[in-house]
Amino acid sequence: MTLEALVNYAKTYGFIYQGSEIYGGLSNTWDFGPLGVTLKRTLKDLWWHTFVTQDAHVVGLDSAILLHPKTWEASGHVGGFSDPLIDCKSCKTRHRADHLIESAGLGLSADGLSKETLEGMIKEHQIVCPNCGKHDFTPIREFNLMFKTGIGVTEESTQSIYLRPETAQGIFLNFKNIQRTSRQKVPFGIAQIGKSFRNEITPGNFIFRTREFEQAELEFFCAPGEEKNWFESYKAKMKEFLLDLGLDETHLKFEDHPEEKLSHYSNATTDVMYEFPWGFDELWGLASRTDYDLKQHQDYSGVNLEYIDPITNERYIPYVVEPSLGIERLFLAVLHDALEEEALENDTRTLLRIHPKLAPVQVAVLPLIKKRHKAMAEDVFKALLGEFRVQYDESGAIGRRYRRQDAIGTPYCVTIDDDSLEKNTVTLRLRDSMEQITLSLDELNPYLKKALTR
Ligand code: GAP
Known about the structure:
- Helix 2 (about 35-55) packs across helix 11.
- With about 450 residues, this protein is α+β, with helices and mostly antiparallel strands.
- The chain folds into three domains: about 5-80 and about 150-335, 2-Layer Sandwich (BirA Bifunctional Protein, domain 2); about 85-145, Herpes Virus-1 (2-Layer Sandwich); about 360-450, Anticodon-binding domain (Rossmann fold, 3-Layer(aba) Sandwich), CATH 3.40.50.
- The chain is built from 15 helices and 23 strands.
- The radius of gyration is 26 Å and the shape is globular.
- Glycyl-adenosine-5'-phosphate (GAP) binds near residues 168 and 200.
């Protein structure tokens, strides 16, 4: 499935539309339509259920998007959260220097390299502008990715403030509050899901890299020395979560950062890579961040953020292990993994072979002939409505309605026909095998419950 086909599919079926479309569109913004918002919400709910609800040692948070400006000085975002920008003097296009090198087809890796090294590589390999083919660049400049806005009502009182580029810092700021009020003992974690904003220089690849996106982040606080065990345990849990969503294991890679490429605050980092239509790219990050963040906030705020062990009375700043996931990237991976054009005997069908627990519509109720079967079909639909994600569809030939449901990934279609009226039965059509089975009306709900809670 190419990226273009995926974008068309997502629009055609109401998963994702171009943002501000009636005004000609606002580039790299996307709106999630009825099926898209349902799938996105389901993914967030499953993440929350797995990493928060099911874990007695993890609690949740919903912190503000606007944080005190000192937050971003302490976290290093004011000084260091930037991308290396380079302009082509010939055609005036702007590029990310590391991307320019990596996409030159020379098999070079430029991740995390200094400005000077990047400039040296561009010169040494005579890398050219992908737009005009010339090798004539400006020096590299660092471009901060945070969105700046103003807070306050008058010109004079307006104070500059940033939209958060990650949800994590809201967690660090609340570490003490949460530890006290929830009476958690280290080790414990704090999780949140929310919007983050980055003024990306090269957004693109549909919803993969955008300027506004949702993150599901978890900061797990532990005693120094225990972080490597928790790191490994989260790595295993993340893999299990992705496989449980039905992702193909061969489309996933766990790439550990070599020691020389670790950020100065990290003693272990793994990127979970998914094979998107353009190749393997980052889906989820896992970082062991030592005590860096809490220490920085302690220094900048002057508030003591030490933890006192209730048994040993030992005082220390906890170490942190952080799994950080982009919800839109997970959405894209799930859609890409499930979507196929299946060849049938005399035909093809668009099939979204998505895990039933993720399907935006889990059950479709279809009267075979509208005039005759509508009343009973509506009763069946109403009876299922509160239990599953259900859709009622009476328009068009039954074969076309099945195809439409296949295309949006509906695992079960319930058809009401003459037999239903006479014998109180329904026909259940299965998405993947297209098999049809007859069930009594009484059997329907328990059958679906069992099938959809797998
Ligand atoms: N707190 C750590 C942190 O934010 P990151 O690697 O910068 O780490 C974590 O981001 C995850 O957020 C990424 O793995 C990716 O899934 C998602 N993400 C980052 N930038 C994004 C963007 N511009 N658009 C969509 N998702 C993004």
